[in-house]
Amino acid sequence: MKRIPRLCYWLPIAALGTCARVAAMNFEVTSATPSQADFRLVARDMTAALDYKAIEPAAASGIIAGADAFASYAPTRDSGAWQRLTGQDVHGIEVGGLRAHAELPLDFDVGGFVGGVLDSRAHVYGGNVRYAVLEGSTVTPAVAVRGSFTAAAGLQDLSYRSYGTDVSVSKGFPFVAPYAGFGVVVSRVKADSRYGLDNENAVQAKGFAGLRLSLGPLESAFEYERLGANSVYNLRFGVSI
Questions:
Q1: Model pTM greater than 0.90?
Q2: What is the CATH number for 62?
Q3: From CA 180, how far away is CA 192, in angstroms rounded?
């Protein structure tokens, strides 16, 4: 089947079902003697791709509610591990979906997301709570702390869950807000018991840096993330009220 242009992949999750081609990527263990080392590498790649993405400055949103579409790309560290474990030549994992967020009293805001792993039947979802420690001003930066949760469904032989916390800082300028942050991600990737693989539980450091561009209610953000030894590239486009 002819491959549909990748630009289609960045549309909201409601369109992903028509944009993605026939499900090609799967999370099925095909090796007769699966290796724990290969499973560990695959689990790290999955965590990098599926974990919650910040893609926003530390400053309190100052809005009632907002929504946006997001996309991320996580190159795999060792495509050979995927080949040996699942029989697939996987060089990267692409995720796209929708996010929504709302302001709460006392400098808190909450958000959630739903998304899909492109070219697969896997879905990912999660949420976060963020607190603005410092609101920031014309001379001082904003600082925020966040807690997040992520899980996935439709992974066939595997299951995934993670929790994260991070601290971020940003400085707002007209139309532009650079930001950066660091945190910790605790993840668990589990294989079906018939494969005899131990759960891959990991605690990994995460760092990220990005830039938000805004024009009235419209905004976009571009972000580079490093989770453990994996790189991830994130972007979003949204509207706020």
A1: no
A2: 2.40.160.20
A3: 37
